[in-house]
Specification:
The protein has helices spanning 3-6, 44-53, 201-209, 280-284, 299-318, and strands spanning 10-16, 22-24, 62-66, 71-75, 79-84, 87-92, 97-99, 106-108, 113-119, 124-129, 131-133, 163-169, 187-192, 212-218, 222-226, 241-242, 247-249, 257-259, 266-267, 271-275, 291-296. The protein is an alpha+beta fold. The protein is built from 5 helices and 21 strands. The strands form 4 sheets. The protein has a 7-stranded antiparallel β-sheet, with no helix packed on it. It has a 7-stranded mixed beta barrel with strand order 13-20-17-18-15-14-21. Strands 2-3-10-5-8 form a 5-stranded antiparallel β-sheet, with helices on one face.
């Protein structure tokens, strides 16, 4: 008998899939040469906190959701779970209902339900389960890229009627919490891009001094911004070059596009700048309609800021 199939008496049934619910982990490394981006979680700090709060390995898969999350019913032995982000959710027990708190782990019993109602003026939230999830990996990662149908669940988002089978529940079910507040960001710090000089002096001035609005046409692949047009005086197209997460392309319409976790690995629009890594977690949480401005910093400053971010993240994890 296949023991992997036999050990599935603990599972979640998806009653409602939510808007964009996927399995994510740290993503895929060293595959740009075959056109495969990293993918992985959008908000890395909330991912790490979620796993630490339920006693998982920090790289374990979680369920990432956007705007409205899933509604799930649990069948099986007691386990613990946590939700991180700025999220409104409820836990339905047999005889009563609880308004859940983020960054606070809870026990789930047989028959309990979790209704992840919405994110609160943000985009992404994370649901971590104190258990090993039965997932197929692709290139050593479960991360789902729905544009390319890559990852677990045949590369598709989770939908109503599906089951999430669990293989092994964590033995330590101690309930934990951490005090953490998701701060908002309006000034995105950037370093100059490789095609910075493609843009007029006025275009550069607009980029660093004017306000932009996050468009509804944003997803895990990229964030489109709307605002004053950034003038290109050289060429609105270039030979396709490699892209990185956070790079800001400016197509012919003059509206910037910020590449996010599922971005294409090459692109032919001039690159005016790159959002620094320290600001990425808060960048992805900008909901449509949010206002942003760009602030130039030097590469050495970006490196220093990222080291501070890593130290702060480590200190938060050590508090749990």
């Amino acid at each position: 008998m296949n023991m992997r199939v036999a050990m599935t008496s603990n599972y979640f049934e998806i009653l409602r899939g939510g808007i964009n619910t996927t399995f994510q982990d740290k993503g895929r490394e060293n595959l740009y040469h075959i056109g495969i981006p990293f993918s992985g979680v959008m908000d890395n700090r909330n991912f790490l906190l979620a796993n630490k709060l339920v006693g998982n390995d920090l790289t374990a898969p979680v369920i990432e959701f956007a705007y409205q999350g899933p509604h799930l019913r649990y069948t099986g032995d007691q386990l613990n779970f946590v939700i991180t982000g700025d999220v409104i959710f409820k836990i339905k027990k047999k005889d009563y209902e609880i308004d859940g708190d983020c960054y606070h782990s809870y026990h789930l019993e047989n028959g309990d339900e979790i209704n992840i109602i919405s994110t609160n003026k943000s985009v992404y939230g994370y649901f971590a389960i104190g258990s090993e999830i039965d997932l197929k990996l692709q290139w050593k990662s479960c991360s789902i890229n729905t544009k390319a149908n890559i990852g677990s669940n045949n590369g598709k988002k989770l939908d109503s009627g599906q089951k999430i089978n669990l293989l092994k529940i964590n033995s330590d079910k101690t309930l934990k919490k951490v005090n953490y507040i998701n701060s908002k960001i309006e000034n995105l710090r950037v370093i100059k891009g490789t095609n910075f000089d493609y843009f007029s002096d006025e275009g550069k001035k607009i980029f660093f001094e004017k306000e932009f609005i996050v468009s509804k046409l944003s997803d895990r692949m990229g964030m489109r911004l709307e605002g004053p047009k950034i003038e290109n005086i050289v060429n609105t197209n270039i030979k396709s070059e490699g892209l990185v997460k956070g790079v800001i392309q400016v197509p012919a319409d003059g509206n910037p596009i910020i590449m996010l976790s599922d971005h294409g690995t090459v692109g032919g629009y001039p690159k005016i700048g790159v959002v620094v890594s320290v600001d990425y977690d808060r960048l992805v949480q900008l909901a449509p309609g949010s206002k942003v401005k760009f602030q130039e910093i030097e590469l050495s400053d970006a490196e220093t800021l990222f080291k501070l971010y890593e130290m702060e993240t480590k200190n938060l994890l050590n508090q749990i």
